Every structure is written in structure tokens, then in C-alpha cells.
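mind reviewing both lines:
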Amino acid sequence: MVVLVLLAVIVGWAVPVAATERVSGDPSPSDSAIDAVTGAADVFTTGVTTPRDADEGLWLSWSLVDTVHDRRVGSANSDTDRTNSESSIKAWIAADYLRVAHEEGRALTGAERADIAAAVRRSDNAAAGRLYRELGGDAILRHLRAVCGVAVATSTPGYWSLTQISAVDATRIFACVLRTAPGLPGGDDLLTDLRSVEPDDAFGIKAALPPTAAVALKNGWMPHTTTGQWNVNCVAAWDDYVLAVLTRYPVDRPLSYGADVCRDVTAAVVGRLG
């Protein structure tokens, strides 16, 4: 039985609504059992207003998943509004490449393994492009639906970075990568890559977490002159949680602005974890 709770806090023009739901139809612990574990002030029962909700010119959407208690909470638009995936989709491209190679019964070459590491650790577009084309281009999105149950499309065929995702989609995709990778040859190496992203690319969510946390992440970012906006997405997992913070804002602000938004939203969410 799906339980959906909507909590709204109105601050000026912003209406940050936290939606809490069961992540799947699997048997879930009772609400009383969850409350006993998380406490009454937990973000999954209370929601949270972030310090960036009223930033002028900022489009913001976020979603947090508790993978142990099978719950999700997020902004009011977390499952409705979509934006470019940018490089965050590279985590799926890498995992799908491993999966297809395994189904074909072949071991990865050194060059293929190097491309996966480069695409994830350095967000190398050329490396990601080679993997994407070898997989059949937009076939990765059909695979995503079949393997992970996430139905998304690109706004421009042939461009993985323009895959249109919601914050909920982002958490589902990343959770699926983390769930399926260990069962694939090379999957443990991919998990190591996701936990070893170069410092300049590991901005946002990780900055708000304890330095001892083992964080797997794949961010995505790009300024678009056609829209006059940055697209900056932060997607990460630690402990039992997967969090996505998606943003768009004017290009006259730096990338660091988007990184700070991701950090501040994470701090607000983590501050309300039981």
C-alpha cells in the first residue's frame, strides 16, 4: 500500500512541498517502526525548507531516497519537472556498457575500461561518447527502462547529455547503477570510480557530508548560451541514502553558485535526518 504525505511550508513566493512515499511496492516496515528508527523530526516525516528555496532566478528540484526503509522525500516538483541530465547520465552509460559486455559474454578491453574510468572520474565527454555510440546511442535509454524501470527520453536524438530527467529519475538511475554494478564483471571497479571522482568534479553534495563518509557521485554541468542558463546537477549516494539536487540558473553566475546550492540543500536535508 502506497502512503503519500504532502507537507507544505510557504515562504514568500516559494512553496517547498515535501513528498514522502514508499519507493517500491515491496513489503515495507510500518510507519511506527520507521518512526522508532528515525525519530519524529526526520526529514521523511517533516520535509524541509532549504535556504535556497527563494533564490531569485533559481530553478531547483531535489529528491532523497532512504534505501533501507524504502522511502522518498523531495521538493514539490521532484517527480514532475525535468531538466537536462548533463554528465550525471554517464554513471548509467558506464553501468550499461558493463551489462551489455557481460550479456555478450566478452571481457572488456583495456581501452574500454580506461574509457569508463575517464568518463566517470574526469567526466571525459569523448570517452563517454565512445561508450555511448558502441552501445547504440539512444539505445541506452531503452536499456534504462528495461533494466531500471526509468522511462526518460532525450530532447535531441543522439545527445545523451540532453536526456530529460526529474530529480526522482536521477535518484532511481543512480540507485540502479549502485544496485546492479556489483553483479557485473568490472562492476566493483565502476563503484571505485564513482567514489574516486576528481576533486574539482566532486562538488556539491559531498561538501556537506562528513569527511569520513564514503560517497559515490556523478555530477553534471553545462552553461547553455541558447537558454542563457547553467544546468548544474549533483547526484550522490552515501550510507543508505541517494540524493539528487538539480538546478538551472542564469549563466552570469558561476559554476560555483550551483555547487553551493547543492551543498546548502544537502546540509538542510542531512540536518533533518533522524
Q: What stands out?
A: Residues 1-20, 22-40 have pLDDT under 50 and may be disordered. Residues 219 and 234 are 5 Å apart (CA to CA). The chain has nine helices and eleven strands. The longest strand covers residues 229-238.
